[in-house]
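Record format v2
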Amino acid sequence: MSDNRALRRAHVLANHILQSTPPSSNLSLTREVCLQYSPPELNESYGFDVKEMRKLLDGHNVVDRDWIYGLMMQSNLFNRKERGGKIFVSPDYNQTMEQQREITMKRIWYLLENGVFKGWLTETGPEAELRKLALLEVCGIYDHSVSIKVGVHFFLWGNAVKFFGTKRHHEKWLKNTEDYVVKGCFAMTELGHGSNVRGIETVTTYDTRAEEFVINTPCESAQKYWIGGAANHATHTIVFSQLHINGTNQGVHAFIAQIRDQDGNICPNIRIADCGHKIGLNGVDNGRIWFDNLRIPRENLLNAVADVSSDGKYVSSIKDPDQRFGAFMAPLTSGRVTIASSAIYSAKVGLAIAIRYSLSRRAFSVTANGPEVLLLDYPSHQRRLLPLLAKTYAMSFAANELKMIYVKRTPETNKAIHVVSSGFKAVLTWHNMHTLQECREAVGGQGVKTENLVGQLKGEFDVQTTFEGDNNVLMQQVSKALFAEYVSCKKRNKPFKGLGLEHMNSPRPVLPTQLTSSTLRCSQFQTNVFCLRERDLLERFTSEVAQLQGRGESREFSFLLSHQLAEDLGKAFTEKAILQTILDAEAKRPAGSVKDVLGLVRSMYALISLEEDPSLLRYGYLSQDNVGDVRREVSKLCGELRPHALALVTSFGIPDAFLSPIAFNWVEANAWSSV
Amino acid sequence: MASQSQVLVEVKSSVRILTLNRPKQLNALCFNMISRLLQLFLAYEKDPSVKLVILKGQGRAFCAGGDVPPVVNNIVQGKWRLGADFFRDQYTLNYVMATYSKPQVSILNGIVMGAGAGVSIHGRFRIATENTVFAMPETALGLFPDVGASYFLSRLPGYFGEYVGLTGARLDGAEMLACGLATHFVLSSSLDALEADLCKVGTSDPSFVSTILDAYTHHPYLKQKSAYYRLDVIDRCFSRRTVEEIISALEREATQEPDDWILTTIRALKKSSPSSLKISLRSIREGRLQGVGQCLIREYRMVCHVMKGDLSKDLVEGCRAILIDKDRNPKWKPKRLEDMKDNMVDQYFERVEEEERWEDLKLSPRNNLRASKIAAKL
């Protein structure tokens, strides 16, 4: 007996050490009792043309997108790997920070050599801009680090040179930037000042004799912080700094400074330190910069808005410093546009993975000895994922609309772009984070495996909620802008025009007291609720601020005190703007299955937004009964969207290789033979 | 009856050996052969006594392509829908092979072109020999690499698939093995012995078949001037976004270091149908992101547009110049690449509208888990 046990133990130990194959045949379980992977495509059918839907969702440059997807799949630089008989490309997030930074740079060189960035700064017009945005989006679907590193170089550094600079800067830098002869970064944020750019402490003075600017970091809180590209690769930077001329502070201005030579050595009078390891985005080399009496030529002031003459006179076509600052910041909108759209693509990746998994993974039987139930056949699982899917659709149209108004921008649309991009950036990035968290939980433990992506993406995309403007600050700006619009229209007794506020010129919509299913799904009803909410909150907000001002508080302080209404209003405005974009997309479609399913998706978006917003009850736009009706309808819509779930995520157009193993044959991907 | 003698069937215990038997036409696949193959493959899949299917060709070709002249005849007589039936069955056969639940061994001892690749490359094992000549020559014929080529070409290393698919370059057995189109290389003198050994296999487990094949495997050297050694140049040039950019990238390479291979490559592209080149490139690029079924459905749309000829009649012209009049001087329309606009290319990928009873290719679901294990992993 004890001999036997010792022998068996020895076998067990030997097996651990030798990793031998399991005992064969006679011990193996029969196929019938083993779980098998069944691809969702076998059991689900497409109720509409997914290619057509993909074209709608991507909106533009579908062929260019497919081209760059292919570029990444065909190169060994993108960490191709096989799992469960399929090829995947996704970064190795287990690499060290330094390795991730180097491979990210190599990937960018590869894309450069293949002509991906051709014309990104030297070509102009909506077509060139849209192509650039599409290619950047696909970079971000592969890896957020790639798109951020590319984005900093082209959209921050490159666009700053293009928009803040003049001919002399364009000639010297744009082509070189496009070819990566110079690698740019963008030093705006400081340790002590982030979203509040006006408060930055870096100081630049002018030396008339040498005709040079002198840049200084006067204190530790003035060190430039989070500067993407600064830690390892960038050769040049845009420096944002207060400009002191003859003792007068002319406000924030942008300069070009070289920080490294061509061999990568840090220049004199510059100190650079690393920001260190981050919760994600470790392929981006964020650094900190101190300037110690750094001298740069007078020509390096980006002088589109203001200039300093060689004898040290400050000249600007815009006299008001506030307006001057606004003119400076206007081109930065591009950052918020790209962030908003990349957030939605990240949500798409998460949902495509989680929904595909929920169409192939089963858990628990409803009847004794019955088959286990597919995750997505649980109403509760539908309720978790399908409303997020509908929101992602609506926001996908919103992101497309934002891109369209951005690429067709004129000086007149600047204000609208600022407001809409602020609201969309905040709401879309928050939505991405909520979606990823829900997707990660919806796939259970598999979600914590890095290679399955949904969990990892949370860390990779988290920063989106605070960079390029903190989401909360942006939402307050939306409310403030609406306030200003309201006050100005009332004061001048003029009708509302722009920002989608025209509905304020009509009488207050009256909602029916009884909400039937068909009422709830009616686009007019949905529009009415969203308008009513926006209008009422705007009126409440302005009157509350006026009241506070009446009590002697300053306007700014009154805004701060009204933060709860400001938050509700910002959300109401943004959600209504999003609803409008999906309504428009739907209206443009000819009758047919695509239009029908868009109608379902739009109703789900509208109703889930209502269900989730307590302000409807708080301010009595809907009764307690109404809210119950909305809730029931959401549940009904879940059931109606369920058959379309696979087709809806397939329409995202994200190639299989850019999803993850649990989206496909997760049994084979985990088989012993693959160990 | 004729169709049966065009596909010879040998029963060797649990193995079926199918021989394409139209040697004078280099085993070009006609409608009857395709129907017969489809019928046989489906029957063998259901028959538990069949474990393995071997496919080979009579004479000096495995299969030189599809039997295109009758299709062109149909088109000329305004009956392209008959041609559509031909392609529908052929693509269905390709799909069945790509998702087959039993191993298929194709012995490629000779010419393998176009449709010949379609009935072999999708299968699990492809045996090349010193006699193998492989090519996808469709762009020179006014067609595009179909039969699921947008699936298997796009899965070759780097941009080798674009190179092979656009230029119609010929590969020998060693090159096929190197790039993955072939899974094994066996000297033709060993084929009889190999076949005899394969006939003893009593299981559909591909690892057993593999073991037998491994015993006969020969490791050929790539010829010194093999295009496969030029993979870096191929990647640099054929990764470009458009056909025009591919050609100018090749021309840039040629000015830096002119050699025969680059000049031949450029010449091949310039001789091919501009519309074919553009739709082929798009097809391979889309195919890279799609499953084999989606690829075939798309290719079916494309081939219907090609036959319908609303945008270009290059297939008829190409066949005239290459197969019928043999003057090798096709007059392509559109004549120049830049005349073939993106929106024209787009139309080849749309459904064929305003055509009565036209439907997308319908592939019945292949409810078979073993298929994913046995079908080729390209």
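Strands of chain B lie at 7-12, 15-20, 52-57, 61-63, 104-108, 111-113, 125-128, 133-135, 171-172, 184-185.
The interface with chain A takes residues 154, 157-159, 235-236, 239-241, 245, 282, 285-286, 288-289, 291, 342, 365, 367, 369, 372-373, 377 of chain B (CB under 8 Å).
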